[in-house]
Every structure is written in structure tokens, then in C-alpha cells.
Amino acid sequence: MQALLGCDRTECGLGAFLLLMACVQGAFVEPLQPDTNLLSFSDTPTRLPCHYQVAQDQSVVQVTWNKELPDGSEDPVIMAHFTEGNREFGRYSGRVKFESFTPITENSALLIPATQESDEGIYRCHITTFPNGNFERRILLTVWTLPISSLEPVNLVEGQPYGVVASCRAVGRPLPLLSWDTDLPGHSHNRSNEGGAVSSHYSLHPLRSMNGKKLDCLVGHAGLQEPRRISNNLVVQCEYTTDENGG
Fold first, then answer.
1. Nearest 5°: CA angle at 59, between 16 and 31?
2. E strand or H helix at 126, and its extent?
3. How far apart are CA 18 and CA 154, in angstroms?
4. Which residues neighbour 233 within 8 Å (Cβ) at sequence distance 6 or greater?
5. Using CA atoms, how far apart are residues 108 and 111, in angstroms rounded to an integer?
6. Which residue blocks in the chain are alpha helix, DSSP H?
7. Does the keyword Zinc-finger apply (predicted)?
8. CB neighbours (10 Å) of residue 27?
């Protein structure tokens, strides 16, 4: 029997004791760990899990979600009380809600229907029970923004000096990575700023033989399975000259 259970009498006895204690005191169904990391994207729904399973002769009196502030204090987000009902606070009013209509007796997950970059931070789900006291889960939410990108070609004429022939720009969080897919003999120069924007400029000496050649911009981002391609073909117009007689 020991071989089938995979534990000796001491280990099995300890496991049974912990299971009994969980049934007596109650326990979190989700998240299981005291600290959890979650990743979400801006303009998408976000779910922060919090489900405390009460034990026999135990009841949840209040559920409170708070967000930690940089100075160490906490900003109240939403609360559910067994007699006073639900309440949203301050700038979160109308932006958040409980997943369940009865967060006191069922799951107390927090929903953010339209996530913003400013929602990034540390959240605490605080469960107040009677008669066993308070229990808490801490969730670190990271918010990414998928890139918004564009490409601007330059009107070229054969014979122009070496210079920029196309510019690619993208804004995202974390910062996107720009590259070029081309066989053209040119060089790229990238720039980025603190606002989450990056640009790449492709330069060469335009020749007639380059007209119609591929010069695609590739936008890479941690939130994309593969780089986003912005298709582009170089356009080099021929330079026509006329003599003094207009011929």
C-alpha cells in the first residue's frame, strides 16, 4: 500500500493534517500563490483572480481590492460588503467590476473591461472573514501596448544624392523593434524616445535600376508571434532633360 500511495506514514499523515487544516480554516482556490504576476494588453479586458473558499462555520464579511501607490500607500479600487453591497472608488468608478454578482459568497475576481497603461501596478485582494480574520492575495499586473506602425516612402528621382528613401515608425510598450527586409544596398538608422516610439530611416543612392524593388519594414514586438510586415516598393522616377529648343 505504501508503494501505491508514494509516501510513508509520516508524509501521508502530514498531508492529511494539512488537508484537514485547509477544510477547517478555508483556503484560496485562485490564485494559489500569495504573489502572482499577470500580463495584459491595453484596450483589452483583464481579469485579476481572487476566489476564497470558506470553511464550515465560516463566512466572508467583506472583499476589498486595493492598488499600491508609489509612496507605499494603497488606493481603494472596489469593495463588496455583506450588508452594504458593492462600491467603486474614485477614478475606478465605472471602469471596474466584480466578475460575480455575488462576490461575497462566490468568486471575487476583479474585471477591468478596457485596460489602460495606467492600470499597471500591484493589486491586493483582501478577504475579511468571520470568525477567522483576514486573508490576502497580491497580484502584479503588467500592461503592454501592441505597436501602432506606419511607413512613409520618399518621392525619388534618379540622380538624387544619397539620402533617406523611406521612414518607418512604431509606438508600443515595450518598445518595438524595427528592421528592413530588402536586397537594396542601403543603410538604416534607428531612433527611440522615452514615450515608447521608435523610428527607422533607410538611406541609399537612388538609381533607375532600383525602381519597384522591395523595401519592407518589419515591426517586431514581444506581444506579437511574428514581426508585422509593412509592404513597400521603392519608386524611382526617371529624370528627363530637354535641350534649349525644347527637343
1. 60
2. strand 121-130
3. 70
4. 212, 213, 214, 215
5. 10
6. 2-5, 9-25
7. no
8. 17
Question: In Å, how far are 15, 61, 77, 106 from 31, measured between CA atoms?
Answer: 21, 20, 19, 14
C-alpha cell at 192: 527611440
d(CA 237, CA 210) in angstroms, rounded, equals 10
Contact 203, 162 (CB under 8 A): yes
The residues near 82 (Cβ < 8 Å, ≥ 6 apart) are 59, 60, 61, 62, 104
Residue 85 C-alpha cell reads as: 453591497
Q: Give the pLDDT confidence score for residue 80 in this predicted structure.
A: 95
From 169, 210, 214, 213, select the one nearest 189 (Cα to Cα).
169
Question: Over the stretch 183-202, which tens digit does the pLDDT of each residue have?
Answer: 999 999 999 987 789 999 99
CATH code of the region 28-144: 2.60.40.10
Cell of 80: 463588496
Q: Is the pLDDT of residue 245 over 60?
A: no
Per-residue pLDDT tens for 35-72? 999 999 999 999 999 999 988 888 999 999 999 998 98
Q: What pLDDT score was predicted for residue 25?
A: 63
Question: Cell numbers of 76, please?
Answer: 481603494
Instruction: State the cell numbers at 199.
Output: 523610428
User: If you count them, how many residues does the chain have?
Assistant: 247
What CATH code would you report for 154-237?
2.60.40.10
Q: Which three cell numbers stand for residue 20?
A: 484537514
- Amino acid symbol at 107: N
Enumerate the CATH 2.60.40.10 domain ranges in the chain, comma separated: 28-144, 154-237
Question: For residue 225, is pLDDT > 60?
Answer: yes
